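Hi R.,

Quick one: here's the Quinoprotein relay system zinc metallohydrolase 2 sequence you asked about.
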Amino acid sequence: MSVEDVPDRRRVLLLGAALASGAVIDSRAPVAADAAPREAEPLPLEEVAPGILVYRAPYALVAPENQGAIANMTLVVGRDAAAIIDTGNSRLAGARMLAAARAATDRPIRYVINTHMHPDHTLGNAAFEGEGVRFVGHYKLPRALSVRTDTYLDQARRMLGDMAAGTRIVLPDLLVTERMELDLGDRVLLLEAHPTAHTDNDLTIRDKTTDTWVMGDLVFIGHVPTLDGSLKGWLALLQRLDGEAAARAVPGHGPAQVPWPQASADERRYLGRLLADARALIARGGAMGEAPQAVAQGESGRWALFDEFNARNAIAAYHELEWE
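And here's the predicted structure, written out as tokens:
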């Protein structure tokens, strides 16, 4: 993103967050905003607990028909303020979530929280920029987003065309190194930064009032998991998280709410199959190029978008395990 494109106060905050984490600020201009819609249609929200409303995204790749709204997004409403968790793959997707929030509550949005770096969870941030809004993320998120700016914005342009208007990277200015609590007024959110799993910048958010745990892409239901961090780390983290019961969890992809920890079983099975099959391939001297056809093929038919992502997962697993 271009530092010159943000107000002075935000510019200082973004630079400070990025430089503190070793990030490289990209000078690439955002997608031109000329075609950005003046009003956005609100996304449909489902109340999963009092004051917790979730947009349930379709199982889909980014395309004009979904405008980039392909990951679950959550609105949390407190007595004094509200928070948004994840924002979609375009400014338009974020604007639709903002419109939904405004239709649901008159509380000001105080925090926009990103569960991790992937564009379907972060590129809608630009719709929420404004006085008093803090952007929150894992302490490794600024660098992760900065080094992927060109890739993420080019993807948005290619897949959405004019619907990507106004989309740009907005870095967090409030960073979570271990744990942090955010008070919305009689509603405290517990944020926890995790070691490398789905990515190296995964963050979970737990609403203490309703015991609702927003998991981001640490939990996939129905949509095949996507590996962009550490397979062994992800399995280890799930084992720990499974030991912490919650009234409900909100996955990054899948239903608006699922029982926890029961809902993790299918994902753990898939990731375990990736691990076992990749190790078996390596043990018999198979090449990395064989991984897409040799790893986790028994899971085909059990997951949406399996063909789109399993091959990449297989290669990532092979690469991680090759020299263990």
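Residues 81 and 107 are 5 Å apart (CA to CA).

Cheers,
M.
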